[in-house]
Amino acid sequence: MNEAAVKPNVEEICRPLRDFQRASVEYAFRRLYQDSDKIDRFLVADEVGLGKTWVAKGVIAHAVERLWDTKDRIDVLYICSNAEIARQNINRLNLGERREDAFASRLTLLPLHLGDLNARKVNFISFTPATSLEFGTSSGARRERAVLYWLLSEIWDLRGAGPKNVLQATAGLRSWRNLLDEVQGDLEQQDGFAPIVVERFTEELRADPSLLAEFERLCELFGRARLHVPPDERRQRNELIAKLRRALARSCLAIFEPDLIILDEFQRFRNLLQGEDEAAQLAQRLFTSSGSKILLLSATPYKMYTVSAETDGDDHYRDFLLTCGFLLPKPQVEALEQELMTYRVREHPRTAATAPTLVRGRRPARRHAALRALLPLHDARREHRPAGACASTVGPPHTGGSGKADSEPDLRAAGPAHSYARQPQRQAGSALVLGSALAT
Is the pLDDT of residue 84 over 60? Predict the structure, then answer.
């Protein structure tokens, strides 16, 4: 462990924050880490330009300080949809001045960085779903394939040119061989792959014996280097490489359990939150890592109010419930859906014959109380907000033992900024929070 590591000064890191941002940081941290009914997933939703990234940095600072004396290594994972934004924001979120503590990479390249990660007290890592979780039939990046080559060489005892030619894919011969030598040098500097990496990847390979059989067949087919590969052989090669990349990704998830995961503008990859495809399954394994907390950031956590002529195939009501589904146990989401349907039928009967729709309109007191019970709200105090800006909504209400929520919520039709939190089903008293940020 790096003895030069210095515990972050939370007060200094949070000093530049505006009052409403600081209130958001303190409340989110309290609900994630301190309260007796603390939660694992928390959504901070605010309008563009009001500093969600800086709020996230404040939460990170508090989390690192809390974990400092109990964890040998603290990992913060930042996920967003754009690689350039990932590289930019991971350095903004870094608590120190050492840029080497923060790096943008791919999940499947972690075996090259594990030595460095173990040598540092705090690590900031960024991924994008497209490069780390969605494989399709792509052969991936060259360095990724070089890692595969050396791992497979250790496990399957690769010999001859065939394995190198298979994993070369579309790279040039000279540059590919040079990259293999470069990655081998990197591995020698860290005394090879960590045993846990080899062990987990071996387990993945043994779980699917067809991988070895297909690899050996293609090694015979690609026994010599060729400038032109027939399309069918190229397809078979790429499909196998994609399967090997998936197996490597699964093995990396087994050894990488981040302490805090930041999902920035998660609505851009919301299919990963509750989808059923392979990418979603990988993501959900990551999100359910033991001890991990998740902080979601979004200006549009679900599609806002639309009329039927504006939907373009999107259903904002269903989108809202799907967002809730990631943050709440299933029974509570079902209760919420039923209460919203009751509200719509009883108070707005004309909309009952149409597709389910969150409606704007007068707030019926008799349904308001029932909805508010399912959607307890918390709103950063309006007086802390920049003039004309929507509220930063930061988490579930907490009674503090008084039996009353910290602030009186204001439930309106779907507004531009909302906040949710989830308590795992294994804990009692789970709660969803929807903080309305409509200006009045």
Answer: yes
User: How far out from the chain centre does Cα 304 lie?
Assistant: 22
pTM: 0.79
Cα angle for residues 141, 142, 143 (degrees, 5° grid) = 95
Q: Which residue has the tokens 């070369």?
A: 168
Does the pLDDT value for residue 238 go beyond 70?
yes
Domains in the chain, please, with CATH? 10-133+259-422 (3.40.50.300), 142-255 (no CATH)
